[in-house]
TrEMBL record:
It comes from Clastoptera arizonana (Arizona spittle bug). This is GIY-YIG domain-containing protein.
């Protein structure tokens, strides 16, 4: 790379080298990372007993929305969500280990579009 600098110097082109060991790289980011389930976006819920998979969107924290799914099952309210319908009709189980974050989304205007993309993927 130093030889390359010498060649380009003949054409009045200056090369600047940048160190990779900056303070930012050494100590990392100052902000704490948000836990996976404490964000909004698109997530999938897999049935614990079969291959059924549900793609769901939420504007709120995913952990709160999933607790609502569990509540709908517990209090037998299948009209509230399709996950509850499946669990109650088939006597299947879901738990927090069955959640996978598909896409974190902060802009709520994009939720419907992304949900459709992941459903038809």
């Amino acid at each position: 790379t130093r030889g390359f600098k010498t060649i380009l110097k003949e054409f009045n082109i200056k090369i600047v080298f940048k160190a990779n060991n900056t303070i930012q790289n050494l100590i990392g980011g100052a902000k704490d990372k948000i836990p996976e389930l404490n964000c909004s976006g698109i997530y999938e819920v897999k049935c614990g007993n079969c291959e059924c998979l549900y793609i769901v969107q939420t504007r709120r924290k995913i952990v709160y929305r999933f607790k609502e799914h569990l509540s709908h099952v517990k209090f037998q309210c299948p009209e509230k969500c399709s996950i509850a319908v499946h669990v109650l009709d088939n006597d299947h189980l879901i738990n927090v280990n069955n959640i996978k974050i598909v896409k974190k989304i902060n802009d709520i205007r994009l939720l419907n579009a992304y949900e459709s993309i992941f459903i038809y993927k």
